[in-house]
Automatic annotation (TrEMBL):
CDD domains: DUF820-like. Residues 11-180 form the Putative restriction endonuclease domain. SUPFAM superfamilies: Restriction endonuclease-like (SSF52980). This is Hypothetical cytosolic protein. Gene3D superfamilies: tt1808, chain A. It comes from Thermus thermophilus (strain ATCC BAA-163 / DSM 7039 / HB27). PANTHER family: SLL0198 PROTEIN-RELATED (PTHR34107), SLR2092 PROTEIN (PTHR34107:SF7). It comes from the Bacteria.
């Protein structure tokens, strides 16, 4: 986490991302910068999760799936890049072309985070809170080190599951069950 003399603008964040490929730049609601490079296992796990989500969406055509390189601009001013995200088609199509090209100003319906070795689970839980406060309806935190998954929904306590191979994410993602063994 970087505490700078002033909050970084959206354009500055975009430029940092362009100049520093391979790093994930995010802006907290307070204007702090979070930066982390993706290691091999983290990249593999995130891609596997995004692949499962994209395959499910291809079969149903309900929306658009994004990988970890996409930053979303949330109502509180934060710009966050979940490891994978799902946006309903109507919400995506309601954006202008300029909004689609930049950091989309919307809350995805569902976001996914896969813990890396360098990440503190409490920081990721706090990030899930930011997502939910900004309109995300489903947050999924996969912790391959604990072989656990936590499912977050607004107004409900997180559901923690250990020792399971699949997690159904109905009703938010109808018919989608996340297969966990490829993420371990």
């Amino acid at each position: 986490m970087l505490d700078l003399a002033r909050p970084v603008s959206e354009e500055e964040l975009r430029r940092l991302s362009e100049l520093n490929p391979g790093y994930q730049w995010e802006r907290s609601p307070e204007g702090r910068l979070w930066v982390s490079p993706t290691g091999g296992e983290s990249g593999r796990r995130s891609l596997q999760l995004a692949y499962q989500l994209a395959r499910w969406n291809e079969e149903r055509g309900l929306g658009v799936v994004f990988d970890s390189s996409t930053g979303f601009k949330f109502p509180d001013g934060s710009i966050l890049s979940p490891d994978a995200a799902f946006v309903e088609r109507e919400a995506w199509e309601a954006l202008s072309e300029a909004e689609r090209e930049g950091f989309p100003p919307l809350a995805p319906k569902a976001v996914f985070e896969v813990r890396s070795a360098s990440q503190d689970p409490e920081e990721l839980r706090a990030k899930m809170g930011i997502y939910l406060r900004n309109g995300v309806l489903l947050g999924v935190l996969v912790d391959p080190y604990a072989r656990a998954v936590e499912v977050f929904r607004p107004g409900k306590p997180p559901l923690r599951l250990e020792g399971v191979e699949r997690v159904s994410l109905d009703p938010e993602l109808p018919g989608f069950a996340l297969s966990l063994p490829p993420l371990w």
